[in-house]
Amino acid sequence: MNYFKKVIGLVSTTLIVASLVGCGTAISSDKANGSSDPAKDDVGIVNGELVLSVENPNDKKVGTKFTIQNNKTEDVTLTMNSSQYFDYQLKDEKGSVVYTYSADKMFTLMVEEKVLKPGDTLEMELALEENLINVPSGKYTLEVWSTASEAKDLKAKVDFHWVGSNQGKLNVQETVVTFVGLQDLNSIEVVNEQGQSETYRLAEVVKSEFDNLAKDTKIKIFYVDRDGQKEVQSVEIQ
Fold it and tell me: Which end of the chain, N or C, is less packed with Cβ atoms under 10 Å?
C-alpha cells in the first residue's frame, strides 16, 4: 500500500512539473512571435520622431538657425533632391505669404544625403538679414521646413517682429585669398595674402559657388563685415 502511494505521488509530481514547463514554453513562444503585451515592454524612445525647431529671430541680431533633431533610436537618412536643404515662408498677420525663400533662387539638381544618428542634429542658417532685405518691418509668422522626403510633412514656425534689414548700410570689401575648404554648410576656411588662416561666413546666394571648388584655388571674395563676422557676398576665381 505504501508502495502504491509513492507511485501515485511520483506521477502527480511529474505531471505538475511537466505542466509548469509547458506554461513556460508557451510564454516564451508568445514573446518570440511578438504577441506579448506591448505595454509591458521597455521600448525607450523607439517611438520618437524627427523634431524640427527654429530660433526666434528677435533673439538674434543676425541669422536664425533651423534645426532637425533625430529623436529615434535608429539612424535616419535625410534625402534631398537638390542643393536646397530647406525652404521657408514669411506670412503677415492676415496669413498672406509675403516672402518665399526659394522663389528667387536656383539650386543644383543632385541627390544629397545626410545621416543623423540617434540624438544628432542638423543645423542650417536661414540668413534672414540677407534674404528679407526687401521685406518691410512688421509682425510676421516664419514657417520653415526641410526639403528631405523623410520630413516633408513637418514644419517649424515662430511669430516675430521683423525690424527690417540693415544690409544696405554695410560696406562691401574685397580681398584675394586661397581656398582651403568648407568648414560646415555655412562657412569656409581660407588663407589670406599674409599667410594667415581665416574663416568667412557664406551668404546663402553664394554657397553653391563652393560646392566643387578645388582646394588651393585662388579667389577674390567680396564680403561685408556683419557684427564682427566677415560674410562672403560674391566670389571670382583668379
Answer: N
